Amino acid sequence: MPIAATRFRFAVTLILPLAALLTPFEVRGDEGLWPLNQPPTEIFRDKYQFTPGEAWYQKVQRSCVRLGRGGSASLVSRNGLVLTNHHVVSDQLRKLSTPERDLLTDGFLAADPSQELRCQDLDAYVLLGIRDVTAEVNASVTADLTPAAANEARRKKIAELEAQRPDDSSIHSNVVTLYRGAAYHLYRYRRYTDVRLVWAPELRAASFGGDVDNFEYPRYALDAALLRLYDENGAPLHTRDFFQLNLEGVGENEFVMVLGNPSRTQRGLTVDHLRFLRDVEYPAVLGSLWRREVQLRTICERGPEQERLFRSELLGVQNSRKAVSGYLATLQDPRIIASKVEDEAKLRQGVAGNPQWQAQWGDAWDRLTNALAAYRGFFARQNLLNGRGAALDSRLFRIARHLVRYAAEREKPDAERLEEYREAELEPLKLRLFSPAPIEDDVEIEDLASGMALLIERLGGDDPLVVQVLDGRPPRERAAELVRGCGLKDVETRKRLFDGGAAAVAASQDPMIRLATLVDPEARKFRKRYEDEFESVERDAYAQIAAAQFAVFGRQRPPDASGSLRLSFGTVCGVTEGGRTVPAFTQIGGLFERSAQFGGTPPFDLAPSWQRAQSALDRTVPFDFVLTAEAIGGNSGSPVINRAGELVGLVFDINVPALGWNVVYTDQVARSVALDVRALHAALTHVYHADALVAELTRELPE
Amino acid sequence: MPIAATRFRFAVTLILPLAALLTPFEVRGDEGLWPLNQPPTEIFRDKYQFTPGEAWYQKVQRSCVRLGRGGSASLVSRNGLVLTNHHVVSDQLRKLSTPERDLLTDGFLAADPSQELRCQDLDAYVLLGIRDVTAEVNASVTADLTPAAANEARRKKIAELEAQRPDDSSIHSNVVTLYRGAAYHLYRYRRYTDVRLVWAPELRAASFGGDVDNFEYPRYALDAALLRLYDENGAPLHTRDFFQLNLEGVGENEFVMVLGNPSRTQRGLTVDHLRFLRDVEYPAVLGSLWRREVQLRTICERGPEQERLFRSELLGVQNSRKAVSGYLATLQDPRIIASKVEDEAKLRQGVAGNPQWQAQWGDAWDRLTNALAAYRGFFARQNLLNGRGAALDSRLFRIARHLVRYAAEREKPDAERLEEYREAELEPLKLRLFSPAPIEDDVEIEDLASGMALLIERLGGDDPLVVQVLDGRPPRERAAELVRGCGLKDVETRKRLFDGGAAAVAASQDPMIRLATLVDPEARKFRKRYEDEFESVERDAYAQIAAAQFAVFGRQRPPDASGSLRLSFGTVCGVTEGGRTVPAFTQIGGLFERSAQFGGTPPFDLAPSWQRAQSALDRTVPFDFVLTAEAIGGNSGSPVINRAGELVGLVFDINVPALGWNVVYTDQVARSVALDVRALHAALTHVYHADALVAELTRELPE
Q: With CB atoms 3.0 to 4.6 Å apart as the test, which of A497, A632, B237, B322 could cross-link to A262 if both were Cys?
């Protein structure tokens, strides 16, 4: 999914009293998504009297799991059990479903390990180590290079670094860019490709309250699922590193930490960059999301089979829409922008006060502003062809494009390829490309027809590319013809074309291969423009701004999130807003009350299993809770742990004010939302009768 | 509502096999929305052996009713009973509802005339006569005038013509533009301001199947309501002109006619004008509709009170979204455009073949193309400030803007005013402006906040107008401040400002008056640009193209719809598509079957009254039916009559292929959808027990 990492969730109301709190370039309260090799040691020590050693960090790091390209998760048993959010694996649940067995609606519990269902295209990553490679990356850049050439040199060096690995195909390396270009760190992971579904509740239990309660608190959602990692021999992974559940849970005001893979924050952006998001990028992204939400909702309403096929896509779109609405609303507050203007002015004054600094870094802001102005000119086309809003985005089209592109890229030296086709990336790519997950014609036709119509809407019906794509037919008719005639639904055909290279692809008469071949030159052209005209300047300018910040203020913020493992921290803490106090914890009894309030109608309907279990459940058991530790899209599935490294909760959301964290941290009313381990335990015991799992999760095991 | 006339209703699938049928400038099959002074006499005679006399047309014309600014309806009893669609009056039902009495959910039946509820701001119009004033309008234009000046001269002349009326305040005159400028006809109406609600079914009965079944067939919707016109003495209107119900109904293949006020079709547009709709106008309109639909839907889901407040706005938005989606899908078919290109080339060749024609009309197409190119440059801003997509569109803002504008316009001679403030328009304006319908703060804040956010999204947060509108606050906070501080919720305050004129408005500290004053100069500037740079050329060019068409082909199409009374005709006729035959009629039994198919869940839930009546109803009674007679937005509520001028049905929808009628007529699969009078009769009798109404509707009365 183009926006898969944006998993958090809306805002009818978003009045953020943030502006008053802003002071430039200081870490505020419990701010920060910290890399594990750059932990907030002083804050831990001074504010929380917490001084974990190297071993503590090692164990925590190796207990964390990244799922696929974006989800967070953690190991929770010595037998490879992995805890994450239901919504992180909902797409896998859809792929494992059939018209007869709808895992989203009915949930799933493996009676024993032999019944666990292997996910068709999900891999899992455990971080082994981090190495700072900034100097190596920057050594490849000489002073005489243009920004585009410098960017190219950096990319090549990064490809080289990622390709250096022991002869172990399960090791995966990735260079993480920090501060948008000031630092480069090499992350080395162990990758697991045999990931099986162990337990998932019913969708209505996992996302109780649906879109209405999404990004809200109080909440009563059991947004959890259990997977298991298997080793290369097909045996459950044995590990010493995992988070033991602490069934005492956590108390109000207690210190906790959150670990996960937040995808992207925008806190360090220049004012003009924020304006670009406000006026160009977010409106374009939201426009596509609103459009798609309406289309998908009207399809889902047509009947249960349509709902089964399209619901998962709809849930993803709704979630992204709520998140981006919140990000945009924050930037639409003139006071937020005003405070950023003030911060930036202070920094630039500081730089201007020192002639050497001014000479070194003084033009970084203007260079970025100019690059943004250039990018505005081709953003729409770039976004439609390559970006988050890519128009042609059906599963078959993506497969065809990978085959077409890989056939061209494999001819090049590794370091010169598009990054997703480098040797280091091929195994993850093949997992997705050769996924046996069923491809439904109806879904493909709908996705492709919608995308083609979007191309007409945004580029105009007489645009040469649009005319070629449609080939004289209206979008739906053209899409039907492409999908019905496409042989890529067969995995063996994909493998043949993948292995056959450029000659096989050029000879293929598959209509989807032909379409991808048709579109590719223009898509590549705009990707190149983006990299040369914008990204290269961006990296360079932000590296300078980060240096300036350190020079002027003597310290740096923690880096913006960029998809790698981060630690955040804070306390469990309720919210008082407008005289109304919302306590930190909800209780299981509240679920039944809220459902009754709405007469049990969707999205407030109870799953039958919960109706049956009602009398067996202790209504006072804590259900969900809120905390001040930061989270953002990609943090879904993050474990909440205590000082002892024990699991006390599972982050699955943030509240509406916390969407403002994208650009500025505050702990006044912004909160992350987590599931309490005590509710998970009660549900597994009394609702799902998963006795073996409960035993596995709660056994105190000798090291 | 900015799009109120677009009342028809979507298309997941829209493959129109139209292109094959096109031949240039001939009326095809049962094509045409004919003005009553230009009926299709030859077709009636030759194809249907139907030769109605002047008296027949007179009676039909005086039995038709226009509701407010856009809805269709008809008189159906000698005591002023008026039949229309439920969805045409749903906004009135909302205004008459309270938290305790929800007329949309529960429906309404007046036990006797004394219980009928006066609509708060609805007027009704009966057409008395039509006069061709083309020569008079064009006489005001001399050859030396620029297009803008010519347009101005025409507008002044039109204002003069509309102001000429007997000393009878119930007479309302309106000059209708035909062929977008080739002809001007003066329509004279009697206007009724005391319109009362007599009966309305429950929303779930009226729009059974909701958005899913909207624009689909087969259907089972009782989309009807009854009103009554009262005279100036508060007595029910006595009239000899009305449509008598024929309870024999109509048979398959029978000839029928439809009368109503279709708002706008685009069949006569040049190819470049259609491209403008496809690439600029429709995508912009749809973008706003998708956005608003998602926003309103998420609000409605928050609880029953929110649903009561916002449901009616949501239904309107969904309906427009489905309609515009269909219009756009038609234009996104390259074959439709290709056929239009061919038609246009033939006409232009014909013109080019005659040097005099070429000199007179040859440059009309290019002039229009140039005007469209200019309009593209300011469409976004014009549309946001004045158009269908107007951003600031809350009820209080509209009131404030009327007060601000009227204060300025009243100072000018009548013929120089903005047309909605001419003397002839003041009474209808005052009806709406001084409506006592409650104004809810929550709705106002939501509408205004959404509109302000839209301004930022489309114009950017640093646009000077946007900065002034927000005044330093985020949209929702600013909207709350404006609405809470606004005194215009009080009708007397509005009257004071209306009567007080420019001085009173200038002195007012009401925040909404100040906002409207702030925005008005820019809004007027763009309206003027639109009129001078586009509309003036448009009128002139289409007048020339119409003349060329007549010269080259010897005949004209019927004029595109433009909001005035039109007659269309055709036969009752099922559809065969892709081997599947859908019969012309559904039956009452089908309603219960379709509801059961969906387990009775919304929007397929039955109203309690229908559940109770199930056994009393004859399941074989025809429910809805389809016909080949044209209809389009604005036709909702149109009577379907037979040769004898008897009522046999009530148009409430068209099917998806018929949305293509906007640009080209076909009767292959495109159909209008109507309620059968026999279902109306059965429902009033057995479901609503409205015995007095049934008697009134079915009594054979002496002339």
A: A632
